[in-house]
Amino acid sequence: MKKILFTLLTLTVFTLSSWAEDGHRLWLPAQKSQTAHVSTNAQSATIDLAKQELTDYFAGTKATLLIDPALTDDEGFTINGNEDSVVVRARRDIGLLYGAYDVLRRQAIQGNMNHVEQHPRFRLRMLNHWDNLDGSIERGYAGESIFEWFHLDEALLHQYARANASIGINGSVLNNVNASPKMLTREYLDEVRKIADLLRPYGIRVYLSINFATPMVLGDTRTADPKNKRVRQWWKRKAKEIYSIIPDFGGFLVKANSEGQPGPGDYHRTHAEGANMLADALAPFNGTVIWRCFVYGANHKGEDRVKQAVSEFKPLDGKFRENVILQTKNGPLDFQPREPYSPVFDQISETPNMAELQITQEYTGQSHHLVYLGPMWNEFFQYVEPEWLAGISGVANIGKDRNWCGHHFSQANWYAFGRLAWDPSLSSEDIAKEWLGQTFSTDENFVYMMSTIMEESRETCVDYMMPLGLHHIFKFDHHYGPEPDGFKAEYPLEWCPVYYHQADANGIGFDRSSKGTDAVSQYREPYASMYDKLETCPENLLLWFHHVPWTYQMKDGSTLWESLQYHYNQGVINVETYHNIWHNKMRHYVDEQRWREVDDRLEDQVQNAREWRDVCLKYFGGFANKKQ
Amino acid sequence: MKKILFTLLTLTVFTLSSWAEDGHRLWLPAQKSQTAHVSTNAQSATIDLAKQELTDYFAGTKATLLIDPALTDDEGFTINGNEDSVVVRARRDIGLLYGAYDVLRRQAIQGNMNHVEQHPRFRLRMLNHWDNLDGSIERGYAGESIFEWFHLDEALLHQYARANASIGINGSVLNNVNASPKMLTREYLDEVRKIADLLRPYGIRVYLSINFATPMVLGDTRTADPKNKRVRQWWKRKAKEIYSIIPDFGGFLVKANSEGQPGPGDYHRTHAEGANMLADALAPFNGTVIWRCFVYGANHKGEDRVKQAVSEFKPLDGKFRENVILQTKNGPLDFQPREPYSPVFDQISETPNMAELQITQEYTGQSHHLVYLGPMWNEFFQYVEPEWLAGISGVANIGKDRNWCGHHFSQANWYAFGRLAWDPSLSSEDIAKEWLGQTFSTDENFVYMMSTIMEESRETCVDYMMPLGLHHIFKFDHHYGPEPDGFKAEYPLEWCPVYYHQADANGIGFDRSSKGTDAVSQYREPYASMYDKLETCPENLLLWFHHVPWTYQMKDGSTLWESLQYHYNQGVINVETYHNIWHNKMRHYVDEQRWREVDDRLEDQVQNAREWRDVCLKYFGGFANKKQ
């Protein structure tokens, strides 16, 4: 009898500890406790959500949610109490919901729950979905779009909203910046309304990407010229229609005159003229136009691509309506594993700016590589002050895969994006630890080891893909593997790897110094001078700014070619270590399913890292060894 | 003209920085400065050496060497001054020589030269050469013996003596412990005298290993029985003869009744009876008998080999003459990459004890692996207090190879041995930094990177060879590669790998707990209990003390088999990193020749580490995976 009891006990423990997880719950609480009595002093759909979360998951006995008009911040909150009894105060109901999630986060990682005061650093904390209306996702690596038009999965969208609210995201652009004109038709707008209604209690406003030529393509006008009266009227009517359906609609995100998209330039109008037309249409309803600075090739053909955004937008600075925000990628090129910050943030000072970060790992191993982007974003904020920014957008990595992001560890990038949009002074390491504790295990060994790996993983990716400032030597189109010899006569030169690395028998790298394209001159001091001089240019950006001889002596005395070999090799060795640790040491901290899935992906990562190393060292060695 | 001048300057700089080095100068100064005036208040051959070193290499203007009878320590010294002017004081001339070398060491690494006071921690700081009379060296991996009998290379022996004096070594056993009886013949003793005369000014006394059966083998007696009167007389006469030639002769080192060597056991006499006979012969001349405890197989056949030394010697403790010292290897087996300390150090308290460390890398990759043994010796001194020891012996790694040790980094083990014999409280890391600075470069990056690698290298070796307490699974005889399936019916069982790892479908490891051979009981508390219990046994000695199921859960939650895989893989990955760093990043800190030679050996090490991993994981996997 004793033996049977023991067996039963063992089985129970076993069942609990090896609870099958598929990653769908993300970082949200795993087990309902339902031990707490939750009271409030106000009522709303949002407060109901907050109340429900604490009722279900707060493991103490008492929680109180209080609207407190004495507080000043519309989205902030305070927490006072302890793990047994806690009081959340906020000026508005969304603050109470954010506070409730913060209580649960602190509970999960045994954090402090007293004298907590939180305010978001940015007013706009947005996801940009590059989701097409047919369900496909540009640069999506986790299945099809969660926005299933005309067949919306409401339960899934609630989970999506809940996850975002739990990290403070308050805006969502539902469709790809390469936007279909159909997005603004009534049938789609009725669907958008459903999504907006669903997201509203979670504090999330809906935005749409628009195609600048929409009125013309839909056949309502003969042109899309922003100076054309009919066109301007069409947008005003359309804005009115949208706000009649969705009164708190956020606004438009616009990719114009970029990579084949239509824009005001088609009619010899400026970006300002185009943006202002839309801004005028949205202004009566307090809507916002978010206008992307990611443009190249149209008006500045032949100019160094990384200079074109400043060339294009700096003369327009100050000419935009008050409800226009410019949105600029963190770096001047295109979401490479490492770029210098975009000088747009130095040169545009009269117009509000938003930073566009890429959560989806287009250039960092997609959903096959464990690459934690927190350190990259920490690095960005070393150069770009939060005060200069009106908000943060992140290109989402979310799809219909059961685990949302394809790779379990890609969830950490979604999480870290939200946390940094709330407070960009958080360290990526602390965020990693928070996330690991909630998502996998609070075991000290596990959290220490895996947070160390996560912290290092981005530099490792740089090492095995494009160390020392190399950039854009990916295989064409899919951007996963290496293609350093890539050149296609039929493609724009700015899409070709050989254009970016400029390797020859003398050396390697793109000369952007004052003797080259002078891209350095777009930076504020001390960066302009620092990047300009070979001796002071940070070595991790060396080949971004300079064409350097293979025998150039690095700060540690090795030659450039030796240093390149070192980084490629070290990147591979590091990934091998990650896989070794995960495969042999982490299994028992993690449920079988997620362990296996991460393990499989780490194997892929090792293979791909080796491919990067082998292909790049062979190709570059052909030049470097010729010289020696 | 300007151009030519520039070219000449460039050439000069180039020549200096890439000065061809072959490793022969060891850690000793590279460039004579000859700027200092050196004065003394006494004269001797030793003081002449000290004076010459400072005259040649002290880069200041003034150095003073003072015999100071007020000082109390025969070998210690003080240093006062600075890099320009320095005063060394000592009670005896050898202290002045040690002080002079310390000044040069401090000069090389920019160390402090004021208020320095140094005393050696051990009276005996000895090298044991396992050199045979035919020039071969047992477990030597750096060419033939530097002791070329009847053709002595005096210049080479001066360099040898100088190097040893520079790190405080004061004794040298010239020949193999598996000793030839010929060693004590007059013709050899005349040669030994030449060596002794040559080493004397450097403060180094000469010792000889003796064959216990010498009088019988040479045909002077019919037995070697230590109770036999003629035998006893023979040894007395021989001692007298030796001291008439070499008045400061150190004494005998004896390997008796061990691995086929003759000894008192051949006549049913104890080790004490054998040692005391020799001690009585040497006593009139203040000579010492150093008697090795490395015995197994003779009187204790069938007993766990690691227990036999205590079984054999504990009953004899207190029965040895005052001029007998027992010499015991650091661990109870045989110089494995990791062993627990030898319990002889716990159990022998009435007889002086010396620790025998192995500088030559018999079981740690020989002269093909960069394995720095400083951390192993630091570990030993965590368990064995210096107060318990009369001295330290190190089995030398010196041969006629131009760089002395085969591998440039093996010089560091010679150096570290000397420094630790002088002061066992020094950290291996500080010693590594000292050595790197004097031997290669004081560049901060170089020293940081390479000292980090050196510090880690021993644990890495343990990982790729025999992690978690595995031991003695080397290929037979040469002890370089792996042979976990090793079994030879014609060999003693204690030489066979399968006997040591005991792997089967249930698990792996040698049960030395109280349920097994009870070797744990030979340890003092708390170690006896700690090692006995599976739960408290340190994981890095787990399989030394326990037979453990493959599915055993390690402290981090992984299974034993997973942990084993982790360590083997990590060992290889680490060596790959060392090679990568050296190959690509260290080239310009180091002259071409040494860089190339170390690089070649690191390649060998990578290959061998992979062989260890692949062979062991395949072999053990055959058991482990069967069980799962």
Automatic annotation (TrEMBL), chains A, B:
Taxonomic placement: Bacteria, Pseudomonadati, Bacteroidota, Bacteroidia, Bacteroidales
Keywords, ordered alphabetically = Hydrolase, Signal
Signal sequence region: 1-20
Transmembrane ranges, per UniProt, are: none
User: The Glycosyl hydrolase family 67 C-terminal domain covers which part of the protein?
Assistant: 405-625
Instruction: Extract the Pfam families matched here.
Output: Glyco_hydro_67C (PF07477), Glyco_hydro_67M (PF07488)
| Residue ranges constituting the Glycosyl hydrolase family 67 catalytic domain according to the UniProt record | 114-382
Supply the source organism for this entry: Xylanibacter brevis
InterPro entries named in the record: A-glucoronidase_C_sf (IPR037054), GH (IPR017853), Glyco_hydro_67_C (IPR011099), Glyco_hydro_67_cat (IPR011100), Hex-like_dom2 (IPR029018)
Record keywords: Hydrolase included? yes
SUPFAM superfamilies in the record, alphabetically? (Trans)glycosidases (SSF51445), beta-N-acetylhexosaminidase-like domain (SSF55545)
Can you name this protein? Alpha-glucuronidase
